[in-house]
Every structure is written in C-alpha cells, then in structure tokens.
Write a structure and sequence with these properties.
Number of helices: 10
Strand content: 25-35%
Shape: globular
Oligomer: single chain
Helix content: 25-40%
Largest sheet: 7 strands, mixed
Structural class: alpha/beta
Amino acid sequence: MMGETYDAVVVGGGPSGATAATALAAAGRRVVLLDRAGRIKPCGGAVPPRLIRDYAIPDHLIVGRATAARMIAPSNAKVDMPVGGNYVGMVDREHFDEWLRVRAAREGAERRAGNFEAFSRDSDGTAVIHYRPKGAPRDAPLATIRARAVIGCDGARSQLARATLKGADRVPCVFAYHEVVKSPAQDSDAFDRSRCDVFYQGKLSPDFYAWVFPHGDTASIGVGSAHKGFPLREAVAELRRDTGLDACETIRVEGAPIPLRPLKRWDNGRDVVVAGDAAGVVAPASGEGIYYAMTSGLYAAEGVERFLATGKASALAEPRRRFMREHGKVFWVLGIMQYFWYCSDKRRERFVKICEDPDVQYLTWQAYTEKKLVRARPIAHARIFFKDLGHLVGSLR
C-alpha cells in the first residue's frame, strides 16, 4: 500500500474541517480535504460578530442580520431581547460550508469527495484513510490516503473518532431536525426577518428548544431533543401551524445528532486529533456550534503543524487544553443551565421571565457576540445572582 504520503488529511468538510484544511494549506503543508459532498447539517445558522471578524467571512454570506431574539415561554408569554447596537449574523449552511471548502482549495488544499470508511496503518506505521469516492460502485475497491497526521471533523458520532479514540462512542447528543422554508412575503408579529424566535415549550421539546431563525429569503424552523423517540417532525409541524408558517413552501429538510459535551480527549497520542462536532464542541443550552467548530478546527490545525514540525505527539493534546481554557467555563455554565431550567415547563416559564432583566440581556449578548464572560460589571453579576436565586427558590416550591 505504501506510496505518496501527505502531511495531513482532514476528514469532513464542514466549518471545522474546512478551517483546519485552510490553516494547514496556508502554512505550506500538503493537505487533503475529504468531504462527503451533498450533506447539509441541520442548523439555525446563527454566527456571532466575532466569528465574522476572526475568520474573514465576506458580507455576501451573511444572508440576514438579527437584531433581537424573542424567547417564548410555555404560556406563550414573550420576552424580546434586543442585541443592543450589534447583530447576530445568519448564514445558510449549504452556501456557507461550500465557500469555506473553496477557500481551503484556494489556499492549496486538495479536495476529494467521498465517504470515510476505515482507518488503518501501513507497514511502516503511517496512518491510512480508506474512503469510497463519490459515485463509485459499492463493489469497487476503496481509495486510500496516506498521511503523517489526521484531523477528524466528520461530525457527531464521528466514525474516525470511534476508530481511534477511547470513549468517543459515549458522547450524549441532542437530535436536531429542521425544515428550510421560503420566508413569508411580509414580516409580522409571528415572523420577523430581524428577529430569532426561540420556543421553550415542553410540547415542542421536552428538554431543549424549538426555533424559527430568519435567513433572508428563507427561514429555518427546527427543534432538538435528546429524548429518543420524541416526534421531531410532528413538533416542527405543530410549530409551523402555531406560527402560521405552515403555508410557506418547504425547500429542504435535514436531521442529525448534535453533541453537547466535549470529549475528554481529542487525540490518540500519536497522529490523530478531532475537532468540531467530532470533538463535541457544541454549546449546551444554546446548541451553538459554528464558532466553536471553526475555532477548534483552527486549534487542531495549529497543533498538527507543531507536531509535523517537531515530531512531538504531545502537540496534539494542546488544541483541547487551549479550547477548554478559553471556553470551558462557558460550557460548564450552559450545561448547568440546560440541566436545571429545561427540565419542566414550570422552570422554563421562570427561565423566560429571567430574560426580561436588562442585566441578563446585556451580559448574555456580550458573552455571545465576543465569546467570553464579561467581568467588567461586578454589580450586574451580583444583581443577577440574587435574582436567579429568587427564581430558583420559586421553581423549587
């Protein structure tokens, strides 16, 4: 099997994989970006301003700008949260992901379309990726890629992670389903192109939330739940009826698992590291993943670059350490929030009520748009603590 050897192969061409391939190719490395062409992940498509800045996203990919979020309680009580001088960018994953892959190719990454099938090692110990090229007959021999390093970005329940990392098969997931529809011709109270609507209602999701996110001429209407067997399609149909969006033309439907806990280890200690959904970096409670996917992909690429330059496999452990130093506390807080506030309609009602608070709104948007906890307003934090304590006591009565 021995033959041409690449510096790295990136398995998966979503935001994490495309970002990793771009970074390594820009550093002068010979990289293959292997992507299962045609797959679009179910996603609300919200991206913070920091992502747009950090990753030089062009304006034409931002198909909408949401300047507020509306939180809807089980009682249908509504709380509007204006972003306040900023906005949430909205992207369509079909076009956003492909643009990222094209950028990777422009930097020098070699694109290949196919499905990852297996991981093995050549006689000299080099990693080998086996894949079925797009359009190849089922009985055709698998194609192979030899590489000094492998980055796994093949999504939740990553086949590569399961083949190379211990514990990768035990990541808890939310199952997400959404329908992309044509936006109504006119905005209304039920649908506004400048607002993201989030529904905290047990009838739509017993443990997560449902959403209506505008994408300019289209919109994403979806729901997530970790409850096996929960009727996601029926919940979306009910949401569309309740909002009057059932008359909108459906363009496409998509579903997939979304992980909600980072893996305890992202590398195999030898030549493999994972990123994005494969590493479990989707924020609990919010389900936000694009920014974290791209950031983890960049960190994985930088770790692989150090590994290739030094030969030290310890460099592959640094991406996770770096990511958790920067974002681990946010994931911890959001995990507690989801566990406590999403477990019943009584608590969801109080959670939405909390969102009326100006301090909560300010600190929430600052944390979201800049991806770091705000420390500059200790009095606001103190006020929120005591208000939350009051809601907590009330929810336990």
